[in-house]
Specification:
Layout lengths: L1 H49 L8 E3 L2 E3 L1 E5 L2 E7 L6 E4 L7 E6 L22 H18 L6 E3 L6 E5 L3 E11 L20 H10 L1 E4 L14 H8 L4 E4 L1 H9 L5 H15 L9 H14 L11 H18 L18 H20 L8
Parallel strand pairs: 4-9
Antiparallel strand pairs: 1-2, 3-4, 5-6, 6-11, 7-8, 8-9, 9-10, 10-11
Helix pairs in contact: 1-2, 1-6, 3-5, 6-7, 7-8, 8-9
């Protein structure tokens, strides 16, 4: 009875934290999104008028902007979906982890491709070349749209990164959506005997495919094992980054439990207590660990509101373990370490802060009043 009473009090505190802190964060993010998207939409329309192959796909549907990812309340990524790649084969053998190459199908000529001038001598569709062309177009569009004083392009990168109104950071990433195929590195998912997400949802997620992003590999280069031509192409920056953002969103939206609520709380705790120098912990880590928690606790009853505190605490324990072991495996690509580029000192600091946060949650039922 005492334990139930403590759990009930904690749930009340969790609900209050959600209504006070989380809803406030959501409101601020929503306002920022509206400001950011207005500017980016204008720039992308101008880009499209100059180069019709870069069709603006940033559209609002049911109050949400398709193609927009919120990385933090001031950091955003806009994914610009390109026309279908068509005549290219997907290759992920001998490439840096989390990356892939697109190569002309056997017997196909460059002239048959919409992207003819971006194809290398070896037949690879170069992510770097497309990114370079897009960067030039965005720079020109920024001048033409009258945002000269409000938008600054970050110049020390091959990506299109904008600083808006001296408040927001926006990465605009050209991408291809790959449906009907599934990466070999993720072929194990979902495990055949797993209770979550179940065969129906698992099949739906796999059928939805994944994205290939034209961006610098965020996980660091690694010497490929074979495929000399693939290695050469990857070394030149021709490889594409594999993204499962849509698949992850489907998994977290499905079901009747508190998964999305849990993620919102974790993101708010991260912003308030784990936003540290070197960015050792970001929102994507939190989402990844939440998906792991879903596998560990596969029943819908595990995600009732009364279990919310247990799920938050369990994910924080996972986070501390990852920081101490210097490794956070990608949910779909377990060979890919999401903490590979983080410094040891930043991970140590984050682990210390996460321990402090977890200890407060475990020992003080009113801790959320001040967190």
């Amino acid at each position: 009875m005492l334990q139930l009473s403590q759990q009930s009090r904690f749930l009340v505190q969790m609900n209050k934290f959600y209504s006070d802190r989380v809803v406030t964060r959501k409101t601020l993010v929503s306002r920022a999104v509206n400001e950011v998207c207005k500017v980016v939409q204008d720039i992308l329309r101008e880009v499209e008028s100059q180069e019709p192959r870069f069709i603006s796909s940033l559209t609002e549907m049911n109050g949400r902007y398709e193609g927009l990812q919120v990385l933090s309340p001031t950091d955003f990524e806009v994914v610009l979906y390109l026309s279908q790649m068509g005549v290219f084969n997907y290759i992920d053998d001998g490439v840096a982890p989390g990356c892939a190459l697109l190569k002309l199908s056997d017997g196909r000529k460059r002239s048959m491709s919409l992207w003819v001038e971006f194809i290398t001598a070896s037949g690879y569709l170069s992510s770097r070349k497309i990114r370079s062309r897009f960067q030039t177009l965005v720079a020109q569009a920024t001048e033409r749209t009258g945002y000269r004083d409000a938008v600054v392009m970050v110049t020390d990168t091959t990506e299109v990164r904008l600083r808006l109104m001296d408040r927001y950071n926006v990465l605009i990433t050209p991408a291809f959506n790959c449906t009907g195929i599934w990466p070999r590195g993720a072929s194990h998912w979902p495990p055949p005997d797993a209770l979550w997400p179940g065969p129906i949802l698992g099949s739906e997620v796999r059928a939805g495919g994944f994205d290939l992003l034209s961006k610098e590999c965020p996980y660091g280069a690694r010497q490929p094992r074979n495929h000399a031509s693939s290695a050469a192409a990857a070394a030149e920056g021709d490889a594409w980054v594999v993204s499962f953002h849509s698949a992850e969103s489907v998994l977290l939206r499905t079901g009747t439990g508190c998964r999305r609520r849990c993620l919102s709380i974790l993101k708010t705790l991260r912003d308030r207590h784990l936003d540290l120098p070197g960015r050792p912990v970001d929102s994507y880590h939190m989402g990844t660990l939440l998906l792991n928690e879903c596998e560990k606790h596969p029943l819908e009853s595990d995600w009732d509101d009364g279990c919310l505190g247990d799920r938050v605490n369990g994910i924080l324990l996972q986070l501390i373990s990852c920081l101490q072991n210097r490794r956070c495996p990608h949910f779909f690509l377990p060979g890919l370490d999401l903490m590979r580029e983080r410094s040891t000192s930043s991970m140590d600091l984050a682990a210390k802060h996460a321990w402090t946060l977890l200890r407060e949650l475990l020992t003080n039922c009113r801790s959320l009043d001040k967190l």
